[in-house]
Amino acid sequence: MEHLILLASAFCAAAALLHFGSILTVMMRLRRPERSSLPVGAPAVSILRPVCGMENFVEQTLRSTFRLDHPCYEIVFCVANAGDPVVPIVRRLIAEHPHVEARLLIGNAEIGANPKLNNLVKGWQAARHDWILMVDSNVLMRSDHVQCMFLAWTPDTGLVCSPPIGYAPQNLWAELECAFLNTYQARWQCFADSLGMGFAQGKSMLWRRQMLDRVGGIKSLGREVAEDAAATKIVRELGLKVRLVKAPFVQPLGHRRATDVWRRQLRWARLRRDTFKGFFMPEVCAGAVFPILAGAWVAAAAGWPVIGTVLAVAFAWYGAEALLARAAGWPLSARAIAAWIMRDALLPVLWIAAWVGNEFEWRGNAMTLAGQERPS
Q1: Are 93 and 223 part of one and the same domain?
Q2: Looking at the 3D structure of the chain, how many domains does it have?
């Protein structure tokens, strides 16, 4: 029994070290001064924005593409189907901004199972510039978005990315999505980048065409079902690193449904399980549930007040998350803290669900990890 108690104590210490250490590291990262000048000057950029269907704030996020401070860029919107309901919005935005070089390309190239990648192929082929920035349609681009991407580029970089930060949640389920995106996923991704172990996130990716063309161009991203997993592996195979922007960009959420949040998180969990099993396996212990349970057991064995110990650990655990959210300017409220607790309660369930199936939904496409669409 003593050995088990020692093991539980060691687990609590390790979990606390990682939790508080990662939060402190990211807070220090956010305080670090930005480089004042672009390391590669101000090269022209082709911005590819895949669009598909109507999303919350879609007009606002797409409009932000036309309001960038970068001196030379083109916008290439990509849609698979001419009848997509978002097409009239894109056409109107292009007409409203005649001073910005922008166009809409329609069509689909079946190069793999990833619908977004199939949609983007034509944009990659039509892009006029060597630097290509892929930005999902639900990302709100800041005026300095392009500059921030370039400022993260160093001589050993093969790709610069930004995880999404959930913003403007308008109900509890959107707050739960923020809980997953912000102080959990974005925090761990920024922490990994600070340790030199950055990995790609498909929301916003800056490529240099000649680098990706060395391994087969955009079609090489079809090696995996998820293009960001393929991107991470390709960049590392080339002996280069994936870098993250200093402060991630936001994705406004609005209202969310519980089923949609669950399906998205299950899709991402199953993709992580399939592409990076070694990193996915310890995710079951990433939240507060197991550290608090282990701490309660240690407290009971030591004769300490169990309830008091649980409350103290929970206060410190979520208090640290609150400090990070406040320092980063991410959504923070009593509802947000409740959502963090919900998220941590769901993490073990999500982890188990990721192992017991291979199916997921992606933009209305029923798919499997074998990369094939599931029969309807």
Answers
A1: yes
A2: 2
237 in the same domain as 319: no
Q: Are residues 208 and 241 in the same domain?
A: yes
Domain match, 179 and 303 both: no
Rounded to the nearest angstrom, the gap between the alpha carbon of residue 63 and the centroid of all alpha carbons in its chain is 21
H runs (alpha helix) in 276-333: 277-280, 289-302, 306-328
Strand partners, 49: 77
C-alpha dihedral sign at 303, 308, 311, 316: negative
pLDDT single digits (tens) 135-174:
999 999 999 999 999 999 999 999 999 999 999 999 999 9
Are both 21 and 38 inside the same structural domain?
A: no
| End-to-end Cα separation, the chain, in angstroms | 52
User: 172: which 2 tokens?
Assistant: 């509890």
**Can you say whether the dihedral through the CA atoms of 32, 33, 37, 42 is positive or negative?**
positive
Mean pLDDT of 193-213: 95
In whole angstroms, what is the distance from residue 367 CA to residue 361 CA?
A: 6
Strands 365-368 and 241-244, by their bridges, are unpaired
| pLDDT for the residue 255 | 97
In whole numbers, what is the pLDDT of the chain averaged over residues?
93
Query: Among residues 158, 162, 152, 130, which one has the least CA distance to residue 239?
Result: 158
Residue 78, domain member (yes or no): yes
Tokens of 225: 């079902």
Q: Which of 76, 5, 11, 3 is nearest to 301 (CA)?
A: 5
Question: What pLDDT digit, counting tens, does each position of 39-84 carry?
Answer: 556 799 999 999 999 999 999 999 999 999 999 999 999 999 999 9
What is the domain range of residue 225?
34-255
